[in-house]
Write a structure and sequence with these properties.
With about 260 residues, the chain is mainly beta. The chain has one domain. It is built from 2 helices and 15 strands. Strands 3, 6, 7, 12 and 15 form a 5-stranded antiparallel β-sheet that branches. The protein has a 4-stranded antiparallel β-sheet with strand order 5-13-8-9. The chain has a two-stranded antiparallel ribbon with strand order 1-2. A hairpin with a 2-residue loop joins strand 1 and strand 2. It starts with a helix and ends with a strand.
């Protein structure tokens, strides 16, 4: 495994703030930062055109409304970031070298709802094409990055960065022929879980960023998930293919290094 020095050496000359480069920073630890937002669809399960979902806006224990939830505060189930509005503290820098997105569903957008059910996949057990449908969901969402007052860059679709998380686990009846693979044979439990990865299993590695994302001290880093044209999530999220509102959770995980500013 490459050391922090090997991995960051090609970027040693990157500017963090005027007068300070990556090569001048002090290493603290290697860690992940993750943030989760919620997209609420219409009653027909349609994601509206030009939907915008900020991530890394609300830090741990801050109100979750800025990331699409209707009520409640961010807990460790939604984020581990302590960077309010994407701002690292005055002496800290986070350098993200790898990225992944996860797509989930939640029965309620209210984080205070103790009865809410959160599923680890966005798959519909009833839809035989749900692997392709989940890929379509990831393809219909892209993400933008803006650092400070710099230009906004569209990095790519979520599907390009979903390798650890777009993963199907569904109980299929023995008579069902699906892209999940061979159904249970005679005498086997017809509800036996059948697993099949679309873009990779949960053990797949995260995708390396072409250029690291730097969270400079006291500078807003804005990451936003966006839709283009409106699209329907059914049968992506509903087990009964019913035309009902859905709550899509989008989680971005950034893997990288926590650093501190040079002294003096």
């Amino acid at each position: 495994m490459a050391s922090v020095f090997d991995e960051l050496r090609p970027y040693a000359g990157m500017t963090v703030i005027p007068g300070v480069t990556v090569g001048q920073l002090n290493y603290v630890n290697q860690q992940d930062l993750f943030s989760t937002g919620c997209i609420t669809t219409s009653t027909a399960g349609v994601v509206a055109a030009n939907t915008r979902l900020p991530l890394f806006n609300a830090a741990l224990f801050e109100p979750a409304a800025s990331q699409g939830f209707t009520a409640g505060n961010m807990s460790t189930g939604q984020t581990n970031s302590k960077f309010s509005k994407g701002q690292a503290p005055a002496n800290q820098v986070f350098i993200a070298t790898h990225c992944a997105f996860g797509l989930f569903k939640r029965s309620s957008a209210d984080l205070t709802d103790a009865t809410a059910i959160e599923d680890l996949t966005a798959m519909s057990a009833a839809a035989t094409s749900f692997l392709n449908d989940t890929y379509a969901l990831a393809q219909n969402l892209s993400w933008d990055l803006t650092i400070g007052r710099g230009i906004t860059r569209t990095i790519g679709t979520l599907a390009e960065y979903c390798s650890p998380s777009v993963y199907a686990k569904s109980a299929q009846a023995a008579a069902v022929v699906s892209p999940l693979g061979t159904p249970p044979g005679e005498g086997e439990d017809p509800e036996l879980p059948v697993n099949k990865g679309l873009l990779g299993s949960p053990t797949c590695g995260m995708k390396k960023l072409e250029v690291p994302i730097i969270f400079p001290p006291l500078v807003n880093v804005n990451i936003e998930v966006r839709s283009g044209s409106p699209f329907q999530t059914i049968p992506l999220l509903d087990d009964n293919n019913a035309a009902i509102a859905q709550n899509i959770l989008v989680r971005q995980t950034l893997r990288g290094y926590l650093m501190t500013m040079p002294v003096g």
